[in-house]
């Protein structure tokens, strides 16, 4: 009655019978619910347990395998495992998902993440993302990954086009302001970034992730006192649930502001023997801001060896400008063979 026109991919998907046991579906949905509002490593582990439960109930439930793989890929963000360990864990369940359902968009998106952030196969990653788009056209999550691909590739006009497309699909999605700011930051429109952040915070005062981006912009602009104030405000929103990543960025902001004691405190947190896993690139950023380029390069090399997530931003992000011209850093960029 509403005259929906299905794509060939949709038609194929809807004609494939896929019976699922109710208990498995319930466990999978509970895991997804946790992933949608995850804050800690404990949340992530709980989601993983639900996806494993779903698989135990129904060993042919392709989507649960894909969601389990997706969960493994989130480990580096929450201090669980490094990027290499995470992608190795994700490989088997994701391949199982694809064997059970070759048209499963979630599994193809995981493929993209593996090719892009782990294998650094830039062309292969784009092909995997195109396949995902065929299966899930106009999906905001897929489009956001495409936007990040364009940012790292330096194709900022395409990144803006993709960002605006996400907004057209979901006009009230707060992530639009974060994405737009991020593109402006990487394209070095720092004043534009600050303007976008102000606009976003007027609409959504509790969207505290924008405070972190504001700190980045202010720090790069040399407005260090404001950057420190903004980042401390951001940390207060986390309510004691700061991550290794937020500690790393805090150390960078404080060090650039000349607050060596505060920066060293953050460095002790991320480098200490009891520390949760922290992407080595963030630790390198603190040493870089403290003026120790040798130590910074040690961590950037470590990030390269374990295929750290943040490595993909080394070529163009303004944060790494102090390293540009250093032969070791330039060689690392060449070895990555960025698009």
Give a structural overview:
- There is one protein chain.
- By secondary structure, the protein is an all-alpha fold.
- 70% of the residues lie in helices and 0% in strands.
- The protein is built from 18 helices and no strands.
- The protein has helices spanning 8-15, 22-36, 41-57, 62-73, 83-100, 105-118, 122-135, 140-153, 156-169, 175-186, 190-203, 209-220, 224-237, 244-256, 260-271, 280-289, 293-305, 327-336.
- Helix 2 runs antiparallel to helix 3 (41-57), helix 9 runs antiparallel to helix 10 (175-186) and helix 14 runs parallel beside helix 16 (280-289).
- The longest helix has 18 residues, at 83-100.
- It is globular.
- The N and C termini lie far apart (46 Å).
- The model has no long low-confidence stretch (mean pLDDT 91).
In short:
By secondary structure, the protein is an all-alpha fold. Helix content is 70%, strand content 0%. The protein has 18 helices and no strands.
Search tags:
single chain; about 350 residues; 18 helices; about 70% helix; about 0% strand
Number of helices: 18
Q: Between the first and last Cα atoms, what is the distance in angstroms?
A: 46 Å
Shape: globular
Low-confidence segments, given as residue ranges, are none
Query: Care to count the β-strands?
Result: 0
How would you spell out the order of helices and strands?
A: HHHHHHHHHHHHHHHHHH
Q: Strand content of the residues, in percent?
A: under 5%
The main β sheet shows up as: none
Structural class assignment: mainly alpha
Q: What Rg is obtained from the alpha carbons, in whole angstroms?
A: 21 Å
Mean pLDDT: 91
The residue fraction in helices comes out at 55-70%
């Amino acid at each position: 009655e509403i005259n929906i026109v299905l794509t060939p991919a949709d038609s194929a998907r809807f004609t494939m019978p896929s019976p699922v046991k109710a208990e498995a579906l319930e466990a999978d949905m509970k895991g997804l619910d946790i992933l949608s509002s995850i804050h800690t490593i404990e949340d992530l582990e709980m989601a993983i347990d639900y996806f494993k439960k779903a698989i135990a109930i129904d060993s042919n439930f392709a989507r649960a395998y894909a969601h389990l793989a997706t969960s493994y890929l989130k480990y580096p963000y929450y201090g669980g495992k490094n990027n290499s360990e995470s992608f190795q864990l994700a490989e088997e369940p994701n391949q199982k998902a694809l064997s059970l359902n070759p048209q499963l968009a979630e599994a193809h998106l995981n493929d993209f993440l593996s090719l892009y952030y782990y294998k650094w196969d830039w062309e292969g990653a784009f092909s995997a993302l195109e396949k995902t788009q065929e299966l899930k056209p106009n999906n905001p999550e897929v489009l956001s990954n495409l936007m990040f691909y364009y940012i790292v590739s330096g194709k900022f006009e395409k990144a803006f086009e993709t960002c605006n497309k996400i907004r057209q699909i979901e006009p009230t999605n707060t992530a639009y302001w974060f994405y737009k700011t991020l593109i402006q930051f990487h394209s070095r429109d720092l004043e534009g970034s600050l303007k976008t952040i102000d606009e976003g915070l007027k609409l959504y005062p509790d969207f505290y992730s924008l405070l972190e981006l504001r700190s980045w912009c202010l720090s790069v602009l040399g407005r260090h006192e404001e950057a420190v104030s903004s980042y401390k405000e951001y940390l207060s929103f986390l309510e004691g649930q700061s991550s290794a990543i937020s500690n790393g960025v805090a150390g960078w902001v404080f060090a650039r502001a000349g607050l060596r004691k505060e920066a060293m405190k953050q460095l002790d947190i991320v480098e200490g023997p009891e520390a949760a896993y922290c992407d080595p690139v963030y630790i390198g950023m603190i040493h870089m801001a403290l003026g120790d380029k040798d130590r910074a390069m040690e961590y950037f090399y470590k990030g390269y060896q374990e295929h750290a997530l943040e490595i993909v931003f080394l070529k163009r992000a303004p944060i790494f400008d102090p390293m540009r011209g250093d032969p070791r850093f330039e060689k690392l960029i060449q070895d990555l063979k960025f698009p």
